[in-house]
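Entry for Z5A complex. Fields follow.
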Amino acid sequence: MPKANRFLTIEGGEGAGKTTLIRFLTTVLQERGVEVVVTREPGGSFLGEELRELILHPKPTEPLCKEAELFLFLAARSQHIETLIKPALEADKVVICDRFNDSTIAYQAAARGFDKKKVQNLCDIASLCLSPSLTLYLDVPPSIGVRRAHRRNDQNGDQIDRIEQEDLSFHEKVREGFLELAKEDPKRIRIIDTTKAPATVKRHAEELVQEWLKQIL
Ligand code: Z5A
């Protein structure tokens, strides 16, 4: 098993600002001379990207049941770790991953209603017990995050994906799920309030990452 200590994950609800922040943090790390691999879930491998298309398709050929959805996310994760994350960590690179196990707990357990402990056990199997040493959870009320994401989709001409189509109460449960995880593991999961201005969000994230670098480099 590779050392997991250079593994950083970014979590959050819809429109929380993950993509924006990951771009910024990549630059910060590269300026420090750190080799960085940026990836995402679901995705990151050929199979993972194909599964992403299937899972998030806005108009699936038949409704995807929640059990199939859960196992597709997990299958994508195992393949992603084997083909991309593990080799990069073994080569001593920093891996930044947009979503990981915490998303499965927040979306499939807290919001879809699967038993949390059971989902955690499945995540342990799927992720070969790999865990990030730092997770930045970007917190935003769904009413704000959903609005931001829809505005961005309009600007980019992107469709609203299958999970984004869920109602506000679903996204509220996702947020509660993330906040509960952060309470349970405050050392690993650091909360960043992304209702704040982008410059403030970046400053807070950079402080946390610089602190983390002292422990891992
Ligand atoms: N999912 C799951 O259910 N189970 C799992 O195990 C996994 C995933 C791994 C993947 O989508 C979906 O799969 C996701 C969870 C589920 N479904 N949902 N919803 P994704 O991660 O690819 O996409 P997303 O979650 O929908 O994220 P996003 O919409 O792409 O948002 P983002 O990357 O967090 O935000 P952004 O694009 O950086 O920012 C959104 C807009 O806000 C953009 O115009 C920014 O310029 C703006 N922004 C960013 N920061 C700020 C601040 N601070 N102030 C104001 N405006 C800002």
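NOTE: The mean pLDDT is 96.
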